[in-house]
Every structure is written in structure tokens, then in C-alpha cells.
Amino acid sequence: LLNRSSDLIKVIVPPGVMVESQVASVFGEDKVTISETTIPNGPRITLRGANIFGTVKAKNPGKSWFTKFYG
Questions:
Q1: In degrees rounded to 5, what are phi and psi of residue 27?
Q2: Is 28:4 a contact under the CB 8 Å cutoff?
Q3: CA-closest candidate to residue 32, choices 69, 58, 68, 61
Q4: How confident is the model at residue 2 (pLDDT cuts 50, 70, 90)?
């Protein structure tokens, strides 16, 4: 259950996990950017709560700047 105002909440989930957002945002944003590949009958995360003037993001882990630059 998320109840925040004027903050950034970042949820990083492993690939294959389905994320559903039921966050009520007032002058805020909730964004789910995960890979399209989810595991059938696999784990699911449901985000619920209220968000006022803040941002809630759910995403898969990305490469670090070090890995992107140096490979």
C-alpha cells in the first residue's frame, strides 16, 4: 500500500514479473515500464494506494552506467 506525496517511488522488479498499478494519482504520475515477457501464472505485483504530486515508477533493472560505457 503506497500513500505518498511529493516523492519518487521506484519499484524495480525482475524480468518476467507482472506489475499492475492501481495507484490513484492526483497531480502525479504512475508509470509501469516492464518487459513484455511475463511468466504465465508467474508472480504478480499490484501497486495500490494514493499518490499526490509525486511519481511512482515500476521497471525492470537496467544496465548500470558503468556497464553501458565499458561493456
A1: 55, 30
A2: no
A3: 58
A4: low
For residue 41, what are the CA distances in angstroms to 1, 18, 33? 23, 10, 20
Q: Tell me the backbone φ, ψ of residue 18, rounded to 5 degrees.
A: -85, 135
Report how far residue 46's alpha carbon sits from residue 57's, in angstroms, rounded to the nearest whole number. Answer: 12
DSSP state at residue 1: -
Q: Rounded to whole angstroms, how far apart are CA atoms 12 and 47?
A: 12
Q: What is the DSSP letter of 35?
A: -
Whether the CB-CB separation of 63 and 42 falls below 8 Å is answered with no
For residues 43 and 49, give the distance between their C-alpha atoms in angstroms, rounded to a whole number. 20
pTM: 0.69
